[in-house]
Amino acid sequence: QGEPLEREYRVTRPAIEVGITELAEDEIETLDRPQMPLLPVSERLAGFREVQLGFTAEMAIAEARRCLRCDRDVERVEKGAQERAVAG
User: Fold this and answer.
1) What is the rounded CA–CA span in Å between residue 27 and residue 25?
2) Cut 0.90: pTM above it
3) Angle CA 54–57–62, to nearest 5
4) How confident is the model at residue 63 (pLDDT cuts 50, 70, 90)?
5) 70-87 and 57-68 are packed helices; what angle lies between their axes, rounded to 10 degrees?
6) CA gyration radius, the chain
7) How far apart are CA 16 and CA 57, in angstroms?
8) Phi-psi category of 75—alpha, beta or left, where left has phi over 0 and alpha has psi -120 to 50?
9) pLDDT (mean) for 9-35
10) 3-class secondary structure for the chain?
11) Contact predicate 54/37, CB 8 Å
């Protein structure tokens, strides 16, 4: 139709900022992944609704904090392994 097909890209920002959470060693060891809320089996059989219902905002923030710590904990573990290798 003779119209330009240009696309405009915009940088978006997250709706909620989640800061890095400093946790004690015992807290780090007990961090668990939140369980995804699921549709009860009886309701699954009755139709085609989505089975995984999604996280609440609180669950999503908890998972983001847990997940975003992953690289920090890996660095800590790797550093400890390197120190043990040098000392051993």
Assistant:
1) 5
2) no
3) 95
4) confident
5) 20
6) 22
7) 10
8) alpha
9) 74
10) CCCCCCCCCCCCCCCCCCCCCCCCHHHHHCCCCCCCCECCHHHHCCCCCCCECCCCHHHHHHHHHHHHCHHHHHHHHHHHHHHHHHHC
11) yes
Chain centre to alpha carbon of residue 7: 30
Residues 6+ apart with CB under 8 A from 43: 49
**Contact (Cβ atoms closer than 8 angstroms) between residue 85 and residue 71:** no
Q: How far apart are the first and last CA of the chain?
A: 73
Per-residue pLDDT tens digits for 24-40? 777 777 777 888 999 99
Residue type (1 letter), 21: T
Q: How far apart are CA 77 and CA 73, in angstroms?
A: 6
Burial of 18: CB neighbours in 10 Å, binned 0-12, 13-18, 19+: middle
